[in-house]
Design brief:
five-stranded antiparallel beta sheet, 464 residues, Chitinase A, domain 3, alpha+beta, Alpha-Beta Plaits, 11 strands
Length: 464
């Protein structure tokens, strides 16, 4: 059995295979042995009829389909390995010549990974990411901590205001008919959260505890329940309880309550330090992404559609999983989620195409730079993963061993990509953002102006 590359156009390779008469005869015999137990021939027990008897009764071609499959299954994988082809899809098989007492000739057309012609990837110039932590940022972070430490207290001496938390009963009607899903008891509602139908929450402002309120609303045109889309509705609402959020004062006592520090100034200093570290980490990620994006965009590469479709499937699966993790589980949500996922799939092509291209480019750089992962690096990464899972000490070694067996290739590839990006960052040329350059130029100009004025003053004094 022989094979050769018939032609290669971009990512499409056509292989030609020749199967000799003797080799095909062996394949036919394999086919006979495979199916003989399912063929009934009068005068023979099931599975005992000789091949020539079956062929005489049903025709010689009875085994040919299975024989062709055997021939392809033997020849195609061997050729792929021998020619070192990185195939990405199932082959399209075409029978070119199939005649009695002649060699069998068939072709296999298959898509392979594209060859990446890398641009210059060392010394790439990118704008450096600069994230400045301001006093306002620190104040906002303290306000977020303040919000987390707020108390919810009952209100009895005033009407409902924006930001209040209500406990209500409600029943919804379209016309005279009460609609399904529009009724609840002891429902918690934050005024201003916009979690109810537009216009519902605003009509409760100014109302008091134990008051019964008639709320009139119109359902949005694109409401998820089609029977209610665009419909006018009336809700009968009973307010059982009004609560408000009571925020602690941001002072030294606040610092003692929420941290290990005794004063507000110490808490502010530590908060700024945390935010600066967070900003530094974020800037590093942004710089890494910008470098990879620049190299990917500079690479001319035609990406096979099958790879893009696989990435879209992967992204859509993750998108659906996010809904499920948020509690949207059950048949009542299936149609809604499918609709959202299908809309996402339609818009995900550009993202998928970039992801695939980035993967191919990084793989090409790893191959060219011969980036490898040592056993020590692999063991260190496995230990970090185990630590992140907080594995108990007595199960630690078993966990690491299982992780190596199940995910070794994935961890190695992740480390290779990380090392490749580190190399790109190390060799990149970072330039200041335009606003930073302008600020530096303005500062230099100011210094030069002052120096010039000083020089003129000295000259005048010498003239006098």
């Amino acid at each position: 059995m022989s094979s050769k590359v018939l032609k290669k156009e971009k990512n499409l390779v056509t292989l030609e295979f020749t199967v000799t008469q003797g080799e095909f005869e062996e394949a036919v015999n394999k086919a006979y042995l495979k199916v003989k137990n399912s063929i009934n021939v009068q005068g023979f027990r099931k599975g005992k009829a000789p091949r020539h008897i079956i062929e005489r009764k049903y025709g010689k071609g009875i085994f040919y389909d299975d024989a062709l499959d055997f021939a392809v299954q033997e020849a195609y994988p061997a050729a792929v390995t021998e020619l070192n082809l990185d195939v990405i899809d199932s082959p399209k098989i075409n029978i070119e010549k199939f005649e009695e007492k002649e060699d069998l000739v068939f072709t296999a057309e298959v898509e392979v990974m594209p060859e990446v012609e890398l641009p210059e990837y060392k010394g790439v110039e990118v704008v450096k990411t600069v994230i400045t932590v301001t006093d306002e940022d620190v104040d906002n972070e303290l306000k977020a901590i303040q919000e987390k430490n707020a108390r919810i207290v009952e209100v009895t001496d005033r009407a409902v205001e924006e930001g209040d938390f209500l406990t209500i009963d409600y029943a919804g009607f379209v016309g005279e008919e009460q609609f399904e899903g529009g009724t609840a008891e002891n429902q918690t509602l934050e005024i201003g959260s916009n979690s109810f139908i537009p216009g519902f929450e605003e009509q409760l402002i100014g109302k008091k505890k134990d008051e019964e309120v008639t709320v009139k609303v119109t359902f949005p045109e694109e409401y998820h329940e089609e029977s209610l889309s665009g419909q006018e509705a009336v809700f009968n609402v009973k307010i059982h309880e009004i609560k408000s959020k009571e925020l602690p004062e941001i002072d030294d006592e606040f610092a003692k309550d929420v941290s290990e520090f005794d004063t507000l100034e110490e808490l502010k200093a530590d908060t700024k330090k945390v935010l600066e570290q967070r900003a530094s980490d974020s800037a590093k990620i942004s710089d890494n992404n910008n470098i990879v994006t620049k190299i990917v965009n500079d690479t001319e590469l035609e990406i096979p559609d099958v790879l893009i479709q696989r990435e879209i499937d992967f992204l859509a699966s993750n998108y659906e999983q996010q809904f499920r993790q948020q509690g949207f589980v059950g048949k009542e949500f299936d149609d809604l989620i499918i609709n959202f996922v299908n809309q996402y799939r339609e818009s995900a092509r550009a993202e998928a195409e970039f992801n695939v291209k980035a993967e191919l480019v990084l793989d090409a750089i790893i191959k060219k730079e011969e980036i490898t992962v040592s056993d020590e690096e692999l063991a260190e990464e496995v230990s970090k993963i185990a630590e992140s899972y907080q594995v108990e000490e007595d199960r630690l070694e078993a966990f690491k061993e299982n992780l190596l067996q199940s995910s070794k290739s994935y961890i190695e590839e992740t480390l290779q990509k990380r090392k490749a990006i580190d190399m790109l960052v190390e060799n990149a040329v970072f330039v200041d953002p335009p606003e930073e350059v302008e600020a530096e130029e303005a500062k230099t100009e100011e210094v030069e102006t002052k120096e010039e004025a000083k020089k003129e003053a000295i000259e005048k004094e010498e003239d006098n």
